[in-house]
Amino acid sequence: MRASVSICTHNRAIDTMQAVESVLNGDMGSADYEILVIDNNSTDNTKELFDSLNMPAHVRYIFEPQLGLSYARNRAIKEAKGEFVLFLDDDALACSTWTKEVVRIFDMDSRIGCVGGKIVPIWEGGKPDWIPHDIVSLYTLMDFSSEIVEMHAPSIPFGANVAFRRSIFQKIKPFREDLGRVGSNLMSSEESELIGRVRLEYKVFYSPYAIVEHKIAKSRLTKRWLLRRVYWQGISDATRYKKSGWGIFKHTVRIVQAALLILVSFNNVQKVMSEMAKISYRNGTIVGSFRNSRGLNP
Fold it and tell me: Per-residue DSSP letters for 119-163?
């Protein structure tokens, strides 16, 4: 079997089944791939909806009781039978050629350990004009290149559309389980941490032809959500790099600088939002460092 498509989900029953359908509508033969629906301790009707749809045999439902996206993804790696493990977010839709395009890149070179692709947004209600260009990628959007290219550090694929050669996990540990979403929190960095380790021994490639669409729910199109997302990015980075107090003074200075820039840029909504995001990120980094120094969980 060539590919195991993994869709990890928590309380998104309808979105998940739409994601499954998008993969089933692809042009890869059913004998060449499987779909794993990893139910990460959902409390909605995910299981009931899955059972009611009479899925084909190559679509498997797997319940993962330990809450946390990294636990779900690691369960997918453990359960996968394909040569390659492809991760598709539960609120994403794969294009018809997606699975084949990802496999095609891996087949180019046995030293390719990770492949990412283009992520196109579906803005529910339209994209707000206040979102700064420099942080729009936090909505998990990717348009890295118009050509198939190797991605060099610090560039990485995003988790809504990323795949790994399964054999690499024989010598590389999978996702760190102290990183990544847990329930409703916005912890992240599990992908970048893993890809950083993969890159030490393998190549990371990007294909603009391996396309998925990512639904951006209206509930995320608020300033409050975006600042919360950036705050948790700060906590995630502090946790990833095990920061414990170092640099707090520097972050405090940067917060003051950003606050001053807000005062002189009050009529530029994108600039104000960009500086507010910097403050939120620094606050998250400080909180994460403080928690690390005391051995507290995020």
Answer: EEEEETT---TTS-GGGGGGGT-B---SS-EEPPTT----TTEEE
Q: Write the pLDDT tens digit of every residue in 30-59.
A: 999 999 999 999 999 999 999 999 999 999
| d(C-alpha 196, C-alpha 241), whole Å | 12
Residue 167 sits at φ, ψ, to 5 deg, of -65, -20
Q: 103 exposed, middle or buried (CB, 10 Å; 0-12, 13-18, 19+)?
A: buried
B/e letters for 138-171, b = 16+ CB within 10 Å, e = fewer, are bbbebebeeebeebeeeebbbbbbbbbbbebbee
What is the spatial distance between Cα 258 and Cα 238, in angstroms, rounded to a whole number?
20
Let me know: does 190 contact 160? Beta carbons within 8 Å. Answer: no
Contact 176, 70 (CB under 8 A): yes
pLDDT in tens, 72-121: 999 999 999 999 999 999 999 999 999 999 999 999 999 999 999 999 99
Domain residue limits, the chain: 3-220, 223-293
- Unique residue bearing structure tokens 């890809």: 195
Length of the chain: 298
How does DSSP assign 66-95, residue by residue?
S-SHHHHHHHHHHH--SSEEEEE-TTEEE-
DSSP character at residue 117: E
CATH fourth-level superfamily of 3-220? Spore Coat Polysaccharide Biosynthesis Protein SpsA; Chain A (3.90.550.10)
Q: Which two tokens stand for residue 201?
A: 């021994």
Measured CA to CA, the distance from residue 68 to residue 10 in angstroms comes to 9
Count of other CB atoms within 10 angstroms of residue 9: 25
pTM: 0.87
